[in-house]
Design brief:
Elements: E1 2-6, H1 10-17, E2 23-26, H2 40-57, E3 65-76, E4 79-81, H3 87-97, E5 101-111, E6 116-127, H4 132-140, E7 161-165, H5 168-172, H6 176-185
Bound molecules: thymidine-5'-triphosphate.
Function: Nucleoside triphosphate pyrophosphatase that hydrolyzes dTTP and UTP. May have a dual role in cell division arrest and in preventing the incorporation of modified nucleotides into cellular nucleic acids.
Cofactor: a divalent metal cation
Family: Belongs to the Maf family. YhdE subfamily.
Length: 192
């Protein structure tokens, strides 16, 4: 079976590469708009599914292919924090995350020509109080722009995280313990 990763995210590519399994990355771009009143859990699962489907459609020979895709969202109570598009928005996001917890959800989908499996994993992340002078400093690091919630736990954003409950790699973009199990069930073994 040939493994494909339908993702432009460098973090996802690095995480999957750690397994040492050969795979090909596909640059999928889909419409990521959320439907009116679509629950967050349904939205993130639909995004993962649509990315995997779009990935399979890019292949000349989809038979024998296994396409992995994922989507990550940051939920602060009822609000979804997307990728910040400006310095102001990024600063507002960081202030809103300060001194409290939020939930990072990643859904991943594994798709073959015949079937699809979608799984969602949640991690609770606690932020310490973010100082006002750190808000401008963090923007200048350039880390916020391409990340849901406007921070990267794996980078300098980790300086704001006091603790987490749940999977760390889930926050980075791919819950590896669950992905490994799902790949195994699909017939791909990465050790032994
Ligand atoms: C919260 C958080 C998010 N992120 C990233 C993971 C994802 O790449 C991104 C969420 O956006 P996504 O839309 O899930 O993914 P993407 O657009 O980067 O890539 P693709 O759709 O092609 O797979 O935010 C971190 O890297 N670290 C973090 O701590």
């Amino acid at each position: 079976m040939n493994l494909f990763l339908a993702s432009t995210s460098p973090r996802r590519r690095e995480l999957l590469a750690q397994l040492g399994l050969p795979f090909t990355a596909l640059d999928v771009v889909i419409d990521e708009s959320r439907r009116t009143q679509e629950p967050v859990a349904s939205y993130v699962e639909r995004m993962a599914k649509e990315k995997a489907e779009a990935g399979l459609q890019m292949l000349d020979d989809p038979a024998g292919a296994l396409v992995l895709a994922a989507d990550t969202v940051v939920a602060l109570e009822d609000e979804l924090l997307e990728k910040p598009v400006s310095r102001e928005q990024a600063g507002a996001m960081l202030r809103s995350l300060s001194g409290r917890s939020h939930v990072v959800m990643t859904a991943f989908a594994l798709k073959t020509a015949g079937c699809i499996r979608v799984q969602r994993v949640s991690t609770t992340v606690f932020f310490r109080n973010v100082l006002e002078r750190e808000v401008g400093w963090y923007w200048e690091t350039g880390e916020q722009q391409d990340k849901a919630g406007g921070y990267g736990i794996q980078g300098r954003g980790g300086l704001f995280v006091s603790s987490i409950v749940g999977s760390y790699t889930n926050v980075v973009g791919l819950p590896m313990a669950e992905v490994v199990m799902a790949l195994r069930e699909a017939g791909l073994e990465f050790v032994g």
